[in-house]
Design a protein that fits this description.
elongated, mainly alpha, 79% helix, Serine Threonine Protein Phosphatase 5, Tetratricopeptide repeat, 9 helices
């Protein structure tokens, strides 16, 4: 990343952490304008848009990041999370599967997959995903598995 785009990225990151989302968004848009092939800039822009509740726009950013670099498990997971917020569970499952394919030790992707499967009432598959998330150290998986047990699944 060239000097000016790195400085702009740093500024955007600081603004984002300060909760100044509109200003941060402008910084990340400027970074993308300077170098539209920076997958992580598209991903961060997507994260800012999610924070602002602008989910459809965030999806477009995650799609662009994935188009540039389809091997980023974190971006696949983030896209899945947005799709869950939009109630698009099957598409979200696809994203979590992609994240897991890239990084089979991604405990968060396993947990999210399990949660979506629970939502879809696919209890046996949900149990498998949540057990894997728990094995990989996801603390939320234990609670979800306990709820499954209490419900008789």
């Amino acid at each position: 990343m060239r000097g000016s785009s790195w400085e702009m990225f740093s500024k955007g990151d600081t603004l984002y952490k300060e909760g100044r989302y509109e200003e941060a968004l402008k910084c990340f848009e400027r970074v993308i304008e300077i170098n539209p092939r920076l997958d992580f800039a598209w991903g961060i822009k997507g994260a800012v848009l999610v924070t602002m509740g602008r989910y459809e726009e965030a999806l477009k950013c995650y799609d662009r990041a994935i188009e540039i670099n389809p091997r980023k498990a974190l971006v696949w997971g983030a896209k899945g999370n947005v799709l869950v917020k939009l109630g698009r569970y099957e598409e979200a499952l696809n994203c979590y599967d992609q994240a897991i394919e890239i990084n089979p030790r991604d405990a968060e992707a396993w947990f999210c997959k399990g949660w979506v499967l629970l939502t879809l009432k696919c209890y046996a598959e949900a149990r498998e995903a949540l057990e894997e998330a728990q094995r990989l150290g996801n603390s939320k998986a234990s609670q979800a598995l306990e709820k499954l047990r209490q419900a008789g699944y």
